[in-house]
């Protein structure tokens, strides 16, 4: 049952193809399979051309000039919210790219904007690969059809001889039709391909100009802050302060004659004061000696806190007698 259905479908398809082939002009029927391939390529070229024309016309009918000016004006005023709303008025590549950049602020928007621009340019260039392929393939198919036609004509010439050269000439003329058809299809694809490529280059330059203006405004108004550079600067400043603290601590501890050691706490005004180890020992020794002095019993034979007045009077009297004797000796 299934085999019968397949056979019936195949028979119906053959009938339809035969009817379509009979409806074609005689020169098309004589081209054979090559003409059908050229017809397919021309159909694809037409579809792609119409679709791309609709896309580009839809893009150019959108007037994005005013929203772009409003967006840049708000960015100059550092009003990112209003600038984002201005970009969302229309759905165009430039405005969408600016929206990605504004959403990325205050971080660098380069990667997001470039990534979106590349994706959009790739989408706008859709179909150009097919047109480029048709431009190369169609003439080759036409030449192939011509070669096959000439081979067929010479086969006839070889069988029938030169008695009737009119048929041979007619066969060669029919074979050249495929070459003409291939060149026509290539031209049909070449014109829109060059047009769409020029439009794509223009769009690329437009996106680059909008991106450059956006970067200029962001740097001028300081809307971009590089977090990584700020972290590196903070670390470098902290490292420098630590080095200066170590040098100052070494100077106070080793090179100074001050008996105290100062320690500064980073990020605070607290100062910790300690005695050096040598000064601790000296201070301990002095305290012990003073303690022995004040706690030891006073000897009866020695007086530490008074003077012997009798000895002092005796010394004074002795000195007076010596002076008197010396004066007497001089007067004699």
Structure in words:
- This protein has helices at residues 2-23, 26-31, 33-61, 65-76, 80-87, 93-104, 110-124, 128-160, 165-220, 227-255, 277-295, 309-331; strands at residues 260-264, 271-275.
- The chain is mainly α.
- Helix 3 packs parallel to helix 9, helix 5 packs antiparallel against helix 6 and helix 8 (128-160) packs antiparallel against helix 9 (165-220).
- The model is unreliable at 247-258 and 297-307 (pLDDT under 50).
- It is a multi-pass membrane protein.
In percent, how much strand structure appears in the residues?
Answer: under 5%
The main β sheet shows up as:
2 strands, antiparallel
- What is the CA–CA distance across the termini? 181 Å
Order of strands in the sheet with the most strands?
Answer: 1-2
User: What's the total count of β strands?
Assistant: 2
Mean pLDDT: 75
Unreliable segments of 5+ consecutive residues:
247-258, 297-307
Radius of gyration: 54 Å
Helix and strand pattern = HHHHHHHHHHEEHH
The tally of domains stands at 3
Overall shape: rod-shaped
Structural class: mainly alpha
Subcellular location: Cell membrane; Membrane
Transmembrane segments: 33-57, 129-151, 171-193
Membrane topology: Multi-pass membrane protein
Protein name: Outer membrane transport energization protein ExbB
Question: What's this, in brief?
Answer:
By secondary structure, the protein is mostly helical. It has helices spanning 2-23, 26-31, 33-61, 65-76, 80-87, 93-104, 110-124, 128-160, 165-220, 227-255, 277-295, 309-331, and strands at 260-264, 271-275. The chain folds into three domains: 1-30; 32-227, no CATH class; 244-295, no CATH class.
């Amino acid at each position: 049952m299934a085999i019968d259905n397949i056979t019936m479908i195949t028979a119906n398809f053959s009938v339809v193809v035969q009817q379509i082939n009979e409806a074609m002009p005689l020169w098309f029927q004589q081209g054979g399979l090559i003409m059908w391939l050229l017809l397919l390529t021309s159909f694809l070229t037409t579809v792609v051309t119409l679709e791309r024309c609709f896309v580009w016309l839809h893009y150019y009918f959108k007037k994005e000039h005013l929203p772009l000016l409003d967006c840049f004006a708000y960015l100059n005023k550092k009003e990112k919210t209003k600038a984002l709303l201005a970009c969302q008025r229309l759905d165009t590549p430039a405005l969408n790219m600016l929206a990605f950049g504004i959403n990325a602020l205050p971080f660098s928007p380069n990667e997001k904007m470039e990534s979106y621009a590349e994706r959009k340019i790739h989408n706008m260039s859709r179909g150009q690969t097919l047109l480029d392929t048709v431009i190369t393939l169609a003439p080759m198919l036409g030449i192939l059809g011509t070669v096959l036609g000439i081979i067929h004509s010479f086969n006839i010439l070889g069988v029938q001889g030169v008695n009737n050269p009119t048929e041979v000439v007619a066969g060669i003329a029919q074979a050249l039709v495929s070459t003409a058809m291939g060149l026509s299809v290539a031209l049909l694809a070449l014109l829109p391909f060059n047009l769409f490529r020029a439009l794509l280059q223009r769009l690329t330059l437009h996106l680059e100009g909008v991106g450059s203006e956006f970067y200029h405004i962001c740097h001028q108004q300081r809307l971009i802050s590089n977090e990584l550079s700020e972290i590196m600067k903070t670390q470098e400043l902290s490292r420098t302060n630590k080095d200066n603290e170590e040098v100052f601590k070494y100077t106070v501890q080793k090179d100074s004659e001050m008996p105290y050691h100062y320690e500064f706490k980073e990020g605070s005004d607290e100062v910790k004061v300690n005695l050096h180890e040598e000064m601790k020992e000296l201070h301990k020794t002095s305290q012990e000696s003073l303690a022995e002095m004040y706690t030891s019993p006073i000897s009866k034979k020695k007086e530490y806190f008074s003077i012997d007045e009798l000895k002092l009077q005796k010394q004074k009297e002795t000195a007076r007698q010596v002076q008197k004797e010396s004066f007497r000796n001089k007067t004699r």
